[in-house]
Amino acid sequence: MKALMLNKPEQFGRVAVMMGGSAAEREVSLRSGAAVYEALKNKGVDAIAIDVTGSPIEALAGLKIDRVFNIIHGRGGEDGVLQGVLEVLEIPYTGSGVMASALSMDKLRTKLCWQGYGLVTPKWHLLKDESDLDACIEKLGFPVIVKPAQEGSSIGMSKAGNRDELLTALKVAAEFRCDVYAEAWVSGKEYTVAVLDGKALPVIRLETPNIFYDYEAKYQATTTQYHCPCGLSEDQEQYIRDLAVTACKVVGVTGWGRVDVFIDDLGQYQLIEVNTVPGMTDHSLVPMAAKQAGMDFDELVWRILETSCG
After folding, report:
1. Which helix (H) or strand (E) holds 107?
2. Which one of 20, 182, 274, 302 has the minimum C-beta count within 10 Å?
3. How many whole angstroms separate alpha carbon 310 and alpha carbon 297?
4. Which pTM does this prediction carry?
5. Confidence of residue 224 (pLDDT cuts 50, 70, 90)
6. Angle value at C-alpha 135, between 130 and 141, nearest 5 degrees
7. Residue 219: its pLDDT value, please?
8. Which residues carry out catalysis?
9. ∠72-106-136 over CA atoms, to 5°?
């Protein structure tokens, strides 16, 4: 469903910017939420900032809210839980619905969906405990990257180049209480594509001196480089933008999102993950892509809010 194009802030009613949450990405969410709240106020929207520290039902209790701008990253905000609450309360909200949010939060099951549709994603192996290591090594070799399936911002991820490092990486990822998997290491260039209301924004190429684009590279480092224009040919950029839109459609993502893609050394496009509540901080990628498309931050936030009115 396409968003309605609105030109008067009062048409949105009172908007709750829900941020924070209790997941590992809480601090990033608070920064994103503060930026979104300020942008809405700049545009004349009747917005209220809500730091969710416990139950979202309790956070909304006693408030008259017409719609929600959801900027809670990670579990509790990006995984269908908040979406389910808002559906029951009949409050429109930004971003994907219950099913797509829950599915996309689980990187492993997202990969299964993509693979079933015929899209390429790196090979992986599920790691339940130490007994799975040898089969993983036989299947994937080294190096690999080990991931908790339901965390974002690269939290809990580690690169492993031998069996001891693989075991250590498993133990680190297992602390996040969700499935853990090893994924074949992809050598190549990393790209990200923001999708807004079914259309892809300009592609960004990411470059970091870190081992991979980890939490520090995303939110703290000054050495991370963002290339937009991304350096691809016009045909290549259009292909990767179309791929991102398709990747979102396969798992039901609507409203807005961001798809991460590698182009490996053989020129193959490999899908990594999709984020349904991307960051909106001063280091975040969606605002960078929007700026390249001629859209400032306040206008981007308005456009995302419009997707709650479809």
Report:
1. helix 107-117
2. 302
3. 21
4. 0.93
5. confident
6. 105
7. 62
8. 25, 153, 219, 258, 260, 273, 275, 279
9. 140
- How does pLDDT run across 184-216, given as a tens digit for each residue? 999 999 999 999 999 999 999 999 877 776 667
Q: In Å, how far are 3, 86, 87 from 90, measured between CA atoms?
A: 18, 6, 5
Distance CA 98, CA 279 (A): 19
Alpha carbon of 197 to those of 2, 7, 187, 241, 257: distances in Å? Answer: 6, 17, 31, 13, 9
Q: How far apart are CA 194 and CA 201, in angstroms?
A: 5
Residues 6+ apart with CB under 8 A from 55: none
DSSP 8-state symbol, 129: S
Q: Give the pLDDT score at 218.
A: 66
Q: Is 142 exposed, middle or buried (0-12, 13-18, 19+ CB in 10 A)?
A: middle
By the 8 A CB rule, do 137 and 109 touch? Answer: no
Angle of CA points 227, 229, 230, to nearest 5°: 60
Q: Please count the residues of the chain.
A: 310
> For the stretch 150-169, what's the b/e string if a residue is b when 16 or more beta carbons lie within 10 angstroms of its beta carbon?
bbbbbbbbbbbeeeebbbeb
146: left (phi over 0), alpha (psi -120 to 50) or beta: beta
